[in-house]
């Protein structure tokens, strides 16, 4: 009897440590993003878990694609940082974020940089587990704003396009972020 209790306690401890480790990996944010957060004049951070996504998807009952995609998503975290003026954040931080993802074993799916007076960037990284996408991270940088979104769960790049325009994720068409022209009352 005592041996069974000890084995059960060990199994519970191992399970709990793996759960905590999975939680930490799920919520991992690159240091570069955290440094942007420190210098931003305006910060917006929010997270939807699966149950919140399901409820939110019911606001669009005719959008079957959205509901199908949400069935495989376990969570979405959105981090939006605005800066007082153009060029108020270190552009090198965007490169460091890519380095951090590469070092953590993520694969870059898209890297779009536009130079000029108002530089911008769009990056998409995926994390694979057993040859399937388990997480997707998106970085959208404008001259005075950086948006960072992490989608956790079973999702394909095509499914990601169905989430565009919802939950703080910008619409993407042809690798370009489409501006939101809708005005809400």
Number of strands: 8
Counted up, domains total 1
Number of alpha- plus pi-helical segments: 6
Side-by-side strand order of the widest sheet: 1-2-6-5-4-3
**Beta-strand content:** 25-35%
Largest sheet: number of strands, sense, barrel closure: 6 strands, antiparallel
Oligomeric organization of the protein chains: single chain
Order of secondary-structure elements: HHEHHEHEEEEHEE
Question: What class would the helix/strand composition place it in?
Answer: alpha+beta
TL;DR of this structure?
This protein is α+β, with helices and mostly antiparallel strands.
Task: Give the topology, please.
Elements: H1 2-26, H2 31-39, E1 42-49, H3 50-57, H4 64-71, E2 73-82, H5 92-103, E3 107-114, E4 120-129, E5 132-142, E6 145-153, H6 157-163, E7 171-173, E8 176-178
Antiparallel strand pairs: 1-2, 2-6, 3-4, 4-5, 5-6, 7-8
Helix pairs in contact: 2-5, 3-4, 4-6
What does this protein structure show overall?
By secondary structure, the protein is of the alpha+beta class. It has one domain (37-178). Helices cover 37% and strands 34% of the residues. It has six helices and eight strands, in the order ααβααβαββββαββ. The strands form two sheets. Strands 1-2-6-5-4-3 form a six-stranded antiparallel sheet. It has a two-stranded antiparallel ribbon with strand order 7-8. A hairpin with a 2-residue loop joins β7 and β8 (176-178). α2 runs antiparallel to α5 and α4 (64-71) crosses α6 (157-163). The radius of gyration is 19 Å and the shape is globular.
């Amino acid at each position: 009897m005592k041996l069974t209790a000890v084995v059960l306690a060990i199994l519970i401890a191992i399970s709990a440590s793996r759960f905590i480790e999975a939680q930490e990996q799920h919520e991992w944010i690159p240091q570069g993003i955290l440094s942007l957060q420190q210098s931003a004049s305006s910060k917006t951070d929010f997270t939807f878990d699966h149950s919140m996504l399901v409820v939110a998807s019911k606001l669009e009952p005719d959008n079957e694609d959205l509901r199908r995609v949400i069935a495989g998503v376990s969570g979405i975290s959105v981090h939006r940082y605005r800066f007082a003026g153009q060029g108020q954040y270190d552009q090198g931080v965007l490169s460091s974020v890519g380095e951090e993802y590469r070092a953590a074993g993520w694969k870059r799916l898209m890297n779009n940089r536009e130079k000029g007076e108002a530089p911008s960037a769009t990056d998409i990284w995926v994390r694979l587990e057993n040859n399937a996408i388990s997480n997707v991270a998106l970085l959208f940088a404008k001259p005075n704003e950086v948006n960072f979104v992490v989608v956790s769960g079973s999702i394909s790049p095509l499914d990601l396009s169905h989430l565009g325009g919802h939950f703080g994720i910008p619409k993407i068409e042809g690798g370009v972020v489409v501006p939101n022209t809708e005005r809400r009352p």
